[in-house]
Amino acid sequence: MTKDILMNKTASSSAFSEQRRIQHFKTTRTICGYCGVGCALDLVTRDNRIIAVHPAFDGPANEGALCVKGQFAYDYVHHADRLTYPLVRGADGQLRRATWDAALERAAQGFLDVMQKHGRHAAYGVASGRTPSEANYMMQKFIRVGFGTNYIDNCSRA
Ligand code: SF4
User: Fold this and answer.
1) I need a surface site. Which of 1, 22, 63, 152 has the fewest CB within 10 A?
2) Which long-range contacts (C-beta less than 8 Å, at least 24 apart) are formed by 18-26?
3) pTM for the full model?
4) What is the CATH number of domain 2-78?
């Protein structure tokens, strides 16, 4: 009898702590950006960090399945080596931290120099499979409208 009460008490307190733990999780439905299949998935986050990826069972393209890349390759998001500020190469060949304005100015000048020397088809854009669809849409607009060329692809194929 005493043992049953103790077991029930233990079970209910562990269920309570499990419930509290789950309350800190957040899921966000999104689309895997790695390839053109477009599998639907739920990103599980805690304290604004991705801790798991769950396949969406109602995803029309994947119906509850993900390949190994879509399922597990998310650790780069919070990796310490990830570039979080611009770097500009100096005359000595060394990369140094720069402001966004300085970096964008340098990049724009580089694009202009190449286009003036070799024409608009000298530009070729490679969009990233690790960015949201909206960012890839902007990338193709940037290449097509900004440079006047259709030389745009993504890293899954390039
Ligand atoms: S989970 Fe795999 S197959 Fe599905 S979109 Fe991502 S990379 Fe492509």
Assistant:
1) 1
2) 25/51
3) 0.57
4) 2.20.25.90
Ligand 1 atom closest to the Cα of residue 66 is 1
Measured by CA distance, the residue closest to atom 4 of ligand 1 is 39
- CA dist 101 and 122 (Å) reads 24
How many whole angstroms separate alpha carbon 63 and alpha carbon 55?
8
Cα of 34 vs centre of ligand 1, distance in Å, is 6
Question: Atom 6 (ligand 1): residue with closest C-alpha?
Answer: 70
Q: Could you tell me the distance, in angstroms and rounded to a whole number, from the CA of residue 1 to the centre of ligand 1?
A: 53
Each residue's pLDDT, cut to its tens digit, for the chain (158 residues) gives 444 444 455 555 666 666 666 668 999 999 987 887 889 999 999 999 999 999 999 999 999 999 999 999 999 889 999 999 999 999 999 999 999 999 999 999 999 999 999 999 999 999 887 677 788 899 999 999 999 999 999 877 65
Residue 48 near residue 68 (C-beta atoms within 8 A)? no
